[in-house]
Amino acid sequence: MKLLAPGSEIDGFVLHECLHSGGMAHIYRVGYANAQADMQRSFPMVMKIPRMTLQDGAENIVSFEVELGILPRLSGSHVPRFVAAGDLLRLPYLVMEYVPGQTLQHWLEQHPVEARDAATIARMGSVMAIAAHNIHQQNVCHLDIKPANMLLRPDGSVVLLDFGLSCHAHYPDLLAEEMRKAVGSPTWMAPEQVVGVRGDLRSDIFALGVVLYEMATGELPFGAPVTSGGLRQRLWMTPAPLRQHRPDLPEWLQEVILRCLEPEAAQRYPTAAHLALDLSNPDQVVTGERGRRLRGPGFKTHFKRWIKAAGMHYQPSPLPAQQIEQVPIVMVAIPHEDVSDATLYSLREAVARSLGIRPGARLACVSVISPASSSNASHEHSETMAHRKHRARLRQWAAGLDLSNHSASFHVLEASDVAQALIRYAEANRVGMMILGAATHGLQLQRFIDTIPIRVARDAPCTVILVKQQLPFSALGTTQATASSPIEE
Ligand SMILES: Nc1ncnc2c1ncn2[C@@H]1O[C@H](COP(=O)(O)OP(=O)(O)OP(=O)(O)O)[C@@H](O)[C@H]1O
Ligand SMILES: [Mg+2]
Prior knowledge:
Number of helices: 19
Shape: globular
Number of domains: 3
Distance between the termini: 72 Å
Strand content: 15-25%
Helix content: 25-40%
Bound molecules: adenosine-5'-triphosphate, magnesium ion
Strand order of the largest sheet: 1-2-3-4-6-5
CATH topology of the largest domain: Transferase(Phosphotransferase), domain 1
Number of strands: 16
C-alpha cells in the first residue's frame, strides 16, 4: 500500500504525517475530521494501516486481525488505548492512543553500550517486566517483545506495542490455526515458540532476557538466525556469559539475565513480577555459578542438552493469570515493636502454610520502621545501621522456614503511615498475597478507628490474610501471660 497524503480522510479520521513506514504497516498521526469532536478529544491518536499489496504475505493480514482482536481487550497504562478499527475486508485500520516518547530501539541507538550502567539497565528492565506482567494478568502473552515494540514514555514508564503475534488465553488463536510454523521475531523468540508452543508467559520472560542481554553487552545472545537450524540452537544452547563481553558488569545482573534465558521455561523466573523484584533489589539476588561464570558451558554439556532437546516435548502452558496465581509473590509484614513471640510464631506458621502449597512462590519479608529523625547529625550512617539491624531481624525470623523451594528477600521500609507503606509496596511489586497480624488485642479499638490490618485488608490490591496469634499447643501452658488467646467474638 502506498503512503497516504496528509489531509486524506478515512471514516471520519483525518490523516496527518506518517510516523513510521515499516515492512508490515504504516503509522500516521490522526485527528477527527469533525473539528468540534477534534477539539474535545482528550489524547492524541495514531492510525495503523497494514501493508496489503500482493507481495505482502497472508501473515500480515492475519497478524493484523490478531491485533484487532486483542488490543481492545487490554486496558491500563502499559498499552495504548484502543479507539476504533476499520472493517477488515473493506479497509483495515486501527486507531489508538499516540504514546509520546521513544522506542527502546531508538534509546539503544542513542546510548553507547559503555554508557549503560547496571543500575540503569536494572531500573529500565524492572519497568519493562512490570509492563509485561500487567498484560499477563489480563491473560495475554505478547510473544513479540523486542526493542522496536516497547515505547519509553518521558516519565520512564513503558508501553508495549504491536500485539500482532500475541495470544489471548480466552480467544481463538488465529496464528496457531493459520500458521504451522514458528511465529515470532527470530532474535528474541523463546525456544518453545520455535517448536510452536504459544501462550506461555515465560516466553515473554525469555524475550526480556534477550533485550536485557543486548542492553548490557551490545551483543545478541543468539545472533540473528535466518535458518530454522539456527533458530533451534536456543533449545539447548546457553549464551556466552555477559561478563565475557563486559567484565565490569556485576555478577547479580548476569545471574538475573541468564536465568531469563534458560532453554527450559521452568528454569526461568516463573512470572515477570519475580524478575522485576530481583531487578529492583540487586542486593537480594542470590548469585550462583550462573552469575559468576566467565565462560559458557563446554561442548559436553551442550551435547547432552542437544540430545535431550531432540526428544523434547513441551507441556501445554498454564493460562497466564493462573500461572501468576500459582507462583505469587507472597509478602509478609513483620512488626518490630510491641510484638509478642506468639505473633511472630503465628505469622511464620501462616507463611509456611501459604508457601507449602505453592512451590516457586517468592517470599518478601517487609518491616516498616519510622523515618529516621532528620535532626540526627549522622543521619545517613544511622539509617543504614537501622536498616541492617532490622534486615538481620527479618532474616532471623525467616530462618525457621523451609525455603528450599522458594527465594526470599528482606525489605525495610521507612514510613510514618505503616498501612500506606505496605499497600504501596504490594502495588509496586505486584504482590499476589499479603500476610499480616490481625492485631486481635485491638478489636475493641477497631470499632472506632481503622487499624493497620483493617486498612490494608480494605485497600491492598491483592489477597490479604490476617493471622491471629496462637502459640503451639506445647507452649500454651508456659507462656500464658504473654500470649493471651485471641478474642473471637
Ligand atoms: N500508539 C503509538 N504511539 C506512538 N508510536 C507508535 C504507536 N504505535 C506504533 N508506533 C510507532 O510505530 C512503530 C511501528 O509500530 P508497530 O510495532 O505497531 O508496527 P509493526 O507491525 O511492527 O510494523 P512494521 O513491522 O512495519 O515496523 C513503533 O515502533 C513506534 O515507533
Ligand atoms: Mg513492531
